[in-house]
């Protein structure tokens, strides 16, 4: 057992619904085990500048249902430099903080890995990103809420698309990952889903659109923003091939990152939040806490941040079979 007395928690990178539930879980688990808990504001930027506050059970009351992050977040340039990380280390020492929980995605864990390597400091990570692009967890915190937001938006777009016999290209988030696109595409009955992990075969898509033309009034094509060409180019290409189609483009954007987290995200955040603090107390470090098949699992940062480039063929196959 380690002698950890004071821990700190921060959120970093793009915010994700459920981050507040994760902060709450870390703070309250720390208090449960008689630790002092600090919050670091604005991610690694706050660690570098010393924006560190003391947290108690009340400071995380009434936040489990709120989107965003009460600790705020940032993508820190200063923490990428050794000077920045040195300052951050000194600020942690000033508050006698002896362990850290970081909530974020691959950039967050890459920074944490460097920090552990240089200062031999215990850090645990929670998967907080809407992209679901981390290994070592079935789902990341925020993903379920984000895909439900997309589904809600696409259902509404489908109503107007159907009324006007239109084809909508809808761009969703996911810089390097098509997992938001794929799952929301299946659940909204999209005619095609374009994702960065798979090279777009325009001929096949056009042939399919043409073949299924008589069966449908509306058509929805979901494009991940990280796709080779993005929604605008895809919409132009379809228009070129089918001048008679009434094509519209809708970019959903940051609406996908906001809103109250779903039950799934709240439970996930709570379980991994408890797991992170218990892991630190057991002497763990340098690992992300995830849920695999319903069980809490610890995965080294180096493995968690390896991008998922192999997409489940079953999901892509389903889109094709069901878009007849
Ligand atoms: O990492 C989450 C994410 O929402 C990506 O899907 C998206 O590409 C990116 O963040 C957008 O980041 P920003 O809000 O900084 O533009």
From TrEMBL:
<dbReference type="GO" id="GO:0070095">
    <property type="term" value="F:fructose-6-phosphate binding"/>
</dbReference>
<dbReference type="GO" id="GO:0061621">
    <property type="term" value="P:canonical glycolysis"/>
</dbReference>
<comment type="subunit">
    <text>Homotetramer.</text>
</comment>
<feature type="binding site" description="in other chain">
    <location>
        <position position="214"/>
    </location>
    <ligand>
        <name>ADP</name>
    </ligand>
</feature>
<feature type="binding site">
    <location>
        <position position="248"/>
    </location>
    <ligand>
        <name>substrate</name>
    </ligand>
</feature>
<feature type="binding site">
    <location>
        <begin position="105"/>
        <end position="108"/>
    </location>
    <ligand>
        <name>ATP</name>
    </ligand>
</feature>
<dbReference type="GO" id="GO:0003872">
    <property type="term" value="F:6-phosphofructokinase activity"/>
</dbReference>
<feature type="binding site" description="in other chain">
    <location>
        <begin position="129"/>
        <end position="131"/>
    </location>
    <ligand>
        <name>substrate</name>
    </ligand>
</feature>
<feature type="binding site">
    <location>
        <begin position="24"/>
        <end position="28"/>
    </location>
    <ligand>
        <name>ADP</name>
    </ligand>
</feature>
<dbReference type="GO" id="GO:0042802">
    <property type="term" value="F:identical protein binding"/>
</dbReference>
<comment type="pathway">
    <text>Carbohydrate degradation; glycolysis; D-glyceraldehyde 3-phosphate and glycerone phosphate from D-glucose: step 3/4.</text>
</comment>
<feature type="domain" description="Phosphofructokinase">
    <location>
        <begin position="6"/>
        <end position="279"/>
    </location>
</feature>
<feature type="binding site" description="in other chain">
    <location>
        <position position="158"/>
    </location>
    <ligand>
        <name>ADP</name>
    </ligand>
</feature>
<comment type="similarity">
    <text>Belongs to the phosphofructokinase type A (PFKA) family. ATP-dependent PFK group I subfamily. Prokaryotic clade 'B1' sub-subfamily.</text>
</comment>
<dbReference type="InterPro" id="IPR012828">
    <property type="entry name" value="PFKA_ATP_prok"/>
</dbReference>
<dbReference type="GO" id="GO:0048029">
    <property type="term" value="F:monosaccharide binding"/>
</dbReference>
<feature type="binding site" description="in other chain">
    <location>
        <begin position="173"/>
        <end position="175"/>
    </location>
    <ligand>
        <name>substrate</name>
    </ligand>
</feature>
<feature type="active site" description="Proton acceptor">
    <location>
        <position position="131"/>
    </location>
</feature>
<dbReference type="InterPro" id="IPR000023">
    <property type="entry name" value="Phosphofructokinase_dom"/>
</dbReference>
<keyword id="KW-0067">ATP-binding</keyword>
<keyword id="KW-0479">Metal-binding</keyword>
<feature type="binding site">
    <location>
        <position position="106"/>
    </location>
    <ligand>
        <name>Mg(2+)</name>
    </ligand>
</feature>
<dbReference type="GO" id="GO:0006002">
    <property type="term" value="P:fructose 6-phosphate metabolic process"/>
</dbReference>
<dbReference type="GO" id="GO:0016208">
    <property type="term" value="F:AMP binding"/>
</dbReference>
<feature type="binding site" description="in other chain">
    <location>
        <begin position="254"/>
        <end position="257"/>
    </location>
    <ligand>
        <name>substrate</name>
    </ligand>
</feature>
<feature type="binding site">
    <location>
        <begin position="75"/>
        <end position="76"/>
    </location>
    <ligand>
        <name>ATP</name>
    </ligand>
</feature>
<keyword id="KW-0963">Cytoplasm</keyword>
<protein>
    <recommendedName>
        <fullName>ATP-dependent 6-phosphofructokinase</fullName>
        <ecNumber>2.7.1.11</ecNumber>
    </recommendedName>
</protein>
<keyword id="KW-0324">Glycolysis</keyword>
<feature type="binding site">
    <location>
        <position position="14"/>
    </location>
    <ligand>
        <name>ATP</name>
    </ligand>
</feature>
<dbReference type="InterPro" id="IPR022953">
    <property type="entry name" value="ATP_PFK"/>
</dbReference>
<dbReference type="GO" id="GO:0046872">
    <property type="term" value="F:metal ion binding"/>
</dbReference>
<dbReference type="InterPro" id="IPR035966">
    <property type="entry name" value="PKF_sf"/>
</dbReference>
<keyword id="KW-0418">Kinase</keyword>
<keyword id="KW-0460">Magnesium</keyword>
<dbReference type="InterPro" id="IPR015912">
    <property type="entry name" value="Phosphofructokinase_CS"/>
</dbReference>
<feature type="binding site" description="in other chain">
    <location>
        <begin position="216"/>
        <end position="218"/>
    </location>
    <ligand>
        <name>ADP</name>
    </ligand>
</feature>
<dbReference type="Pfam" id="PF00365">
    <property type="entry name" value="PFK"/>
</dbReference>
<feature type="binding site" description="in other chain">
    <location>
        <position position="225"/>
    </location>
    <ligand>
        <name>substrate</name>
    </ligand>
</feature>
<dbReference type="GO" id="GO:0030388">
    <property type="term" value="P:fructose 1,6-bisphosphate metabolic process"/>
</dbReference>
<dbReference type="InterPro" id="IPR012003">
    <property type="entry name" value="ATP_PFK_prok-type"/>
</dbReference>
<keyword id="KW-0547">Nucleotide-binding</keyword>
